[in-house]
Specification:
The structure holds two protein chains of two kinds. By secondary structure, chain A is an alpha/beta fold. Chain A has a domain of 270 residues. In chain A, the strands form two sheets. Chain A has a ten-stranded mixed β-sheet with strand order 2-1-5-8-10-12-14-16-18-20, with helices on one face. In chain A, strands 3, 4, 6, 7, 9, 11, 13, 15, 17 and 19 form a ten-stranded mixed β-sheet that branches. The two termini of chain B are 29 Å apart. Classes of the chains: A alpha/beta, B alpha/beta. Chains A and B meet through helix 7 and helix 8 of A and helix 2, strand 7, helix 3 and strand 8 of B.
Chain lengths: 441, 251
């Protein structure tokens, strides 16, 4: 076994009962089952087909503290203005080192028909009912999340309720050496509509790991827009899993914007189980220096007349490496489905690398399925055109990189989030790698 | 203003310009004509600073500065403008946004204060009217989905906003119908103010009906083989280029 799993096994044996709901049989049973699944599957290696582009040896060799962290007695030594992004919305739920932080959260004024509940409270006070809402997962990290979950937010939206302003769930790593098991659950009732922003941020001096899980259940006709923003510092390990289930006529849009971490791996999964369901999975990642960001998407069309659309863009600079693997599964009875997938990538340096791979498994015979993948460099003609007009190299490069990613940002309906993303894209492309561009001349 | 002296340029070790001389004074309009492959576009690109060429000899100075030492954006700052034969489509970059970045880039180079949005839009409005460019093109992505005529008109529009000291028009007439040709000619003529200079690179004489040159040069096989006034262009229209090629070979 590896140090990471060995250490967690030890912590789980000794301290599982100290986790929320540790005195509840149902919770203990759930945690044990999930941890046992994690042990059975094991931490992935390059030999696993799903991990062949992402080497997490450095994670396997690191021991993280899963059960410690800041206690509620400690005071908070920063406020939201110290973070490199705005709050985006008046409704903010902050989790600090994995625990709900009432000092920084603003959830008091949620409109009628929407309820935000602390998962640690549910585990303590409503365990029997709550555990029925936690599914079993096959793979290692989602199982580990279920085994070790401490806190998180459950958002319940009553049928027919439309929530005008988005809810921002912000997970912050402040202490070093921690494994943050963040969990977010969104249950959108029939014909309801909501938008949720999920942000992961770690302070510069916090070398930590996040193993987040987001569960989206969209009931009949529900509309859910979910924005996932990953802004960890470049020393962190980040694992994220999104599982969306779409019932009849549900419409889920789930975006992943990933900019941080040393190694980040984000899996976005959608099961279309009701006719008329439609999922959009878009994403943008930017890597620089020695960063590695891997997105794996998986859409399963379980029934006919369902629609999926994926548009992912990646920008790799420095020694950065990006991965996109998009899997589309169409079940045998899922006729008349429509699936579109696009992965476009931009290499800004000679040492950067992108691996992009579509994976189609289609068992139905009457389907529309289109996919395309490109990896390219900045257009040299456009670069010269801009410079010939008086725009300097750095600015020209920034303008063209921005143009490459602009459509992803444009799709964001929340203006402060869209504007912030546009700023990030611009500021992260303004300086580096100019020499390499010249070299391509 | 522009002094090109014995300029020798190769592409992938194949000589394209073989000792070219050209002197352009303030306010002058020079037409460079010549058959395909004579090096006309290479000359335009070299002055604007495109990479991918080996300069094996000679010099290009602009108002006393060694142009070949400057980056393309620095040349723009010095007042050089190239209207492209094939204006580049840049999806995702707004036309007016690009132009504002360009004008402010040039102003910054010259140590002038950058213009704010209001000041800039005032200029754009005035120039839009003067050049007669369709307003709807301004806020579209640069040249993206523009017709051939719209692209060339956009080049002239950019030129009018950036107000260069020397404008090089590289085959601006190619692919234009008569109406578009006339519109481009009008746009350029408005910018003739006695100080601004132009180099009109063209294969055909017809653009010169609208933009009347002071000098006409014939480029053939990498050298200027003949210079004259506007009547030379008319003669070329009648006789073609072959007689000059033969002369050059003999010479």
């Amino acid at each position: 076994m590896n140090a990471f799993a060995e250490n967690l096994t030890e912590q789980f044996r000794q301290h599982a009962e100290n986790l929320p709901g540790g005195d509840k049989d149902k919770v203990i049973e759930l945690r044990r089952r999930a941890f046992s699944q994690f042990e059975t599957v094991g931490v992935p290696t390059l030999r696993d087909e799903d991990w062949k582009y992402t080497d997490i040896r450095s994670l396997r060799e690191t021991s993280y503290v899963a059960l410690g962290g800041r206690t509620s007695a400690e005071s908070v030594d920063f406020d939201l203005n110290d973070l490199p992004f705005p709050s985006f919305t008046p409704h903010v739920a902050v989790f600090l080192d994995g625990n709900f932080c009432p000092e920084l959260s603003q959830l008091s004024e949620l409109p009628d028909g929407i309820q935000g509940s602390s998962i640690s409270k549910l585990l303590e006070q409503d365990a029997d009912q709550f555990v029925t809402r936690i599914g079993d997962y096959e793979t290692a990290f989602p199982s580990l999340n279920s085994a070790l979950m401490k806190d998180g937010l459950l958002i319940d939206i009553s049928p027919g309720t439309s929530v005008a302003e988005p809810i921002h769930v912000l997970s912050i790593n402040r202490s070093g050496g921690l494994l943050n098991t963040a969990r977010l659950m969104i249950n959108a009732g029939a014909n309801s509509a909501c938008a949720v922003i999920e942000t992961h941020y770690s302070f510069d001096d916090s070398t930590s790991m996040t193993n987040a899980l987001t569960q989206i259940d969209a009931q009949q006709g529900a509309k859910v827009t979910h924005y996932r923003v990953q802004m960890d510092n470049p020393q962190c390990h980040h694992i994220g899993n999104v599982f969306a289930t779409l019932n009849r006529d549900a419409d889920v849009k789930t975006y992943s914007f990933a900019f941080g971490g040393r190694i980040a791996r984000i899996d976005v999964n959608a099961d279309l189980i009701g006719e008329g369901a439609s999922v959009t999975m878009d994403g943008l990642f930017m890597v620089n220096d020695n960063q590695h960001i891997d997105h794996h998407t998986r859409v399963r069309h379980c029934v006919g007349n369902t629609h999926s659309s994926e548009n992912y863009k990646g920008i790799a600079d420095g020694n950065g490496r990006g991965v996109f693997n998009g899997k589309i599964l169409v079940d045998q009875d899922a006729q008349k489905i429509d699936a579109v997938q696009s992965s476009k990538n931009l290499l800004l340096s000679d040492n950067a690398e992108i691996d992009t791979k579509p994976e189609l498994e289609i068992y139905a015979d009457d389907v529309k399925c289109a996919h395309g993948a490109t990896v390219g460099q900045l257009d040299n003609d456009a670069f010269f055109y801009l410079r010939s007009r008086g725009i300097d190299e750095a600015k020209a490069r920034s303008i063209l990189t921005f143009a490459f990613a602009a459509d992803i940002a444009e799709a964001v309906e929340i203006a402060p989030l869209r504007e912030w993303l546009e700023q990030i894209i611009t500021s992260r492309t303004h300086t580096a790698g100019i020499n390499e561009i010249d070299g391509h001349g | 203003m522009l002094e090109i002296n014995n300029l020798q340029v190769s592409v992938e070790n194949k000589p394209i310009l073989k000792g070219l001389n050209l002197s352009v004074g303030p306010g002058e309009v020079h037409a460079i004509m010549g058959p395909n492959g004579s090096g006309k576009s290479t000359l335009a690109h070299i002055v604007a600073g495109r990479d991918g060429y080996q300069i094996t000899g000679g010099s290009v100075t602009f108002n006393g500065k060694d142009l070949l030492e400057l980056a393309p954006e620095e040349r723009a700052g010095e007042g050089v403008f190239l209207a492209f034969q094939y204006p580049v489509e840049i999806p995702g970059v707004n036309n007016v946004y690009m132009l504002k970045a360009a004008l402010n880039g040039i102003r910054q180079y010259r140590g002038q204060a950058e213009l704010d949005a209001v000041e800039f839009l005032k200029i754009v409005k005035a120039k839009t009217k003067a050049v007669g460019i369709d307003n709807s093109l301004l806020n579209r992505p640069v040249n993206t989905g523009f017709s051939g005529g719209e692209k060339k008109r956009n080049e002239v529009f950019q030129m009018s906003v950036l107000e260069p000291h020397l404008a090089i028009l590289d085959e601006t007439d190619s692919g234009l119908d008569i109406d578009a040709l006339k519109a481009v000619g009008d746009g350029v003529n408005q910018l003739r103010d006695g100080k601004r200079s132009f180099i009109i690179v063209t294969h055909y004489q017809r653009l010169l009906d609208y933009i009347v040159p002071d000098f006409v040069h014939v480029l053939s096989n990498g050298q200027i083989v003949r210079s004259g006034d506007k009547n030379l262009a008319l003669e070329l229209e009648d006789r073609g280029y072959d007689w000059l090629k033969d002369e050059a070979n003999v010479g």
